Amino acid sequence: MLAKRPPMGWNSWNTFGAKIDENMIREMADRMVDDGYLACGYEYLVIDDCWALRERDENGRLVPDPAKFPSGMKALADYVHAKGLKFGMYSCAGIETCAGYPSSFGHEFVDAETFADWGVDFLKYDFCNFPKSADARTAYSTMAVALKATGREILFSACNWGCCDVHHWARAVGCHMFRSTGDINDSYASFREIGLSQMKLLDTSAVGCYNDPDMLIVGMNGAGNVGMGGCNEIEYRAHFAMWCLYGVPLIMGCDLRVIEPKYRELLQNKLLLRIDQDEESRPPMVVYEQWDMYALVRHLSNGEYAIGFFNMSDELRDKPWNTPIAVFSDFGLPVYSGYDLEVTDVFTGETRVVSDRLRPDGLQPHEAKLYLCRPVKH
Ligand code: GLA
Description:
This protein has an eight-stranded parallel beta sheet. By secondary structure, the chain is α/β, with parallel strands linked by helices. It starts with 7 loop residues before the first strand and ends with a strand. The protein has helices at residues 13-16, 22-34, 37-40, 72-82, 108-118, 136-149, 188-197, 233-246, 261-267, 270-276; strands spanning 8-11, 44-46, 86-92, 122-126, 155-158, 177-179, 210-212, 250-252, 285-290, 293-299, 305-311, 326-327, 339-345, 351-354, 357-358, 368-377. Helices cover 25% and strands 20% of the residues. α7 (188-197) links the parallel β6 and β7. The model has no long low-confidence stretch (mean pLDDT 98). Residues 13, 48-49, 97-99, 126, 159, 183 line the site of alpha-D-galactopyranose (GLA).
């Protein structure tokens, strides 16, 4: 079975856009393995748009651009597989990809076969230049079936930006994840808009098919294709904490060859990854929402919970009356229960026992705090 957990990996788009080639992809594969990302679960290495020639060949097949991929995709897939990684590629449901390359509308079965022949394990399937007269659900169903018909296990990552009610049919038609938003860029405003837009739309995201609020911008520092000024460390932490609390795919987008150690540690934080990858894959509940601040509680497996606090405002919040609070009775742990919560701050590793409520001491503008929790008897 594919997508037993939210898929994890790296994708070329955020940093490289059209500037991709096989040497860079090989170097990224090396970094994913040698720097410990694969060991943490980041297994898919995905080439996004702009890998093909502008024309199909005489057999109607897609052709990798020989200037960018002189060894061909099969050889690159072999290199990636030999490292223990999985290999991902990109196409689009429309008549051209977003960047204007040949796309799979009307070519679904031959393209699926081509990808399977090359050893592709993951297909991101975009939505640009999609005919007005065509039906999105049918188009995604067709590619899902075409991939399945190859006999190769290929994870199907739908990317139609939350359009056409995709939240309600992605799972039924065989997708393993579905983009639920427009494109993220490397700025607090973008993280904020995209993150908040899905906070209450995670109930259809679960084992086998996940809501995908787009790739991670952690560590980009404003560099690259979608670098739009970048974020500070507080904001990258909040972004990663939100994606992990949501239990959604974690597809990195920064240049792993130059990432700062603090962001590598963030992306490899064991407690955060445990929350993201929890096997029950339940959505969080919003238990506090006021003044642009949120508290969410999520049931995890093995008797655990996660509680997250997000200050999405531009203000410092450091008073009891202006910081968010999680009141335990709001998620089923009333004061007479006989239980406290043992809470571990996922960023510092500090553990303490608290009764009846949890409130962070203070939150900087845009800061998040996230706790892994377990009930303990008084
Ligand atoms: C769309 C997608 C992006 C990326 C680009 C490539 O905008 O949403 O994630 O794949 O196309 O052109």
